[in-house]
Amino acid sequence: MAGGTALFRRLLVVIKQTAYEEYSQLRARGQAPKALRWKRLESRYESHKECVNDLLDILRRNDIAFSCVNRVELDRQHLADVDLVIAVGGDGTVLSTAHFLDHGTIPLLGINSDPISEADKINSQSRSHGALCACTRDNMKGKLPRILHGGGVLSEKARIQCIVKSTFSETRLVPALNDLLIANPRPNILPRSQYGTVTRFGGELYEEHNSLNVWSSGLWISTATGSTAAIASAGGKPMEPSSRSLQYLIREHMIENSPNKEEMKNLNNEVFSHDEKLHLRWNSQKGRIFIDGSHLMHNLELGDEILINSHAPPLALFTRDD
Q1: Exposed (0-12), middle (13-18) or buried (19+): which is 78, by Cβ within 10 Å?
Q2: Rounded distance between C-alpha atoms, residue 297 and residue 288, angstroms
């Protein structure tokens, strides 16, 4: 136990609901998929539950007041009078929790409750790598008391601000810590999506002469934090972790018959600075913005304008110190 008075005194613990718990509920209703490895799911659930119990024991021994909430039940009302949020699960739990910390005033600490071992990395793609987690089940007993008493590495992580302007409304989406994917809801359809170019031109709104008309399967936008995630698999560039810039990548850009093919290819993947913005006009009947994965999304209609920059309040996130 670390000595002295803890810096954080009122905690909210956000707990992941495991696949075993979700499928058990479906099994009770006769709706669970048949091809499930129940023993494997139960083993991972037991590992997660043990981590949660150990965490709560550490908080009690350090005389820390806390409350707990299931990840799927988290609401902004749970954040009243809280000075630290701990997300227990993996990267997905950290990302979903961060959406509620849209003002960036409450720090977030992720704990990977079921860390993947070096031996399992090849065969355990479904398990979280915990890139956003400062602690794991295996090392939190040493690290967590130190963080609670003012230690640890607290970093400011840039996030994506996205505003969607429709005919009769304007919607500001929750800040994205990793990335946005803007695409057709049906992946087998290539939309005609007209993007006002990466507006490195002073931030003007959409103009015909200043735009790139795109046929593609979608557009990735990522932060530096997200540059090693999905966009990297699509061919994106790694970015410095502390960068406030954003990156976009046009996915599967159909330019084979374009007279200026090479010029358009050079526009497929660019980094734009904190002072610049991206402006898009959606020219398909239906579209969708996926925010930090597939669980949170916003639907688009023909003619919607999308304004993107990195002006969202940064997230105060504890990061690994090894």
Answers
A1: middle
A2: 7
Please list the residues that pair with 226 across neighbouring strands: none
Phi, psi of 288 (to 5 degrees): -155, 140
Q: At what angle do helices 140-148 and 38-61 cross, to 10 degrees?
A: 40
- Per-residue pLDDT tens digits of the chain, which is 322 residues long: 455 678 999 999 999 998 888 888 878 888 878 878 888 888 899 999 999 999 999 999 999 999 999 999 999 999 999 999 999 999 999 999 999 999 999 999 999 999 876 556 555 555 667 899 999 999 999 999 999 999 999 999 999 999 999 999 999 999 999 999 998 887 666 655 555 433 333 445 555 555 677 777 889 999 999 999 999 999 999 999 999 999 999 887 766 566 566 666 667 888 999 988 888 888 888 899 999 999 999 999 988 989 999 999 999 999 998 7
Separation CA 285–CA 184 (nearest Å)? 9
d(CA 113, CA 293): 20
Q: What is the reported pTM?
A: 0.88
Q: Copy the structure tokens of residue 265.
A: 């290819």
Q: What CA–CA distances, in Å, run from 6 to 11, 55, 250?
A: 11, 16, 47
Residue 185 CA to residue 189 CA, distance in Å, equals 8
Asked whether 269 and 247 are in contact (CB, 8 A), the reply is yes
| 321 closest CA partner among 140, 167, 102, 164 | 140
Contacts 24+ apart (CB under 8 A), 148-152: 148/2, 148/6, 148/7, 148/8, 148/62, 148/64, 148/84, 149/2, 149/3, 149/4, 149/5, 149/6, 149/7, 150/7, 151/2, 152/109, 152/318, 152/321
Burial class (CB in 10 A: 0-12, 13-18, 19+), 287: buried
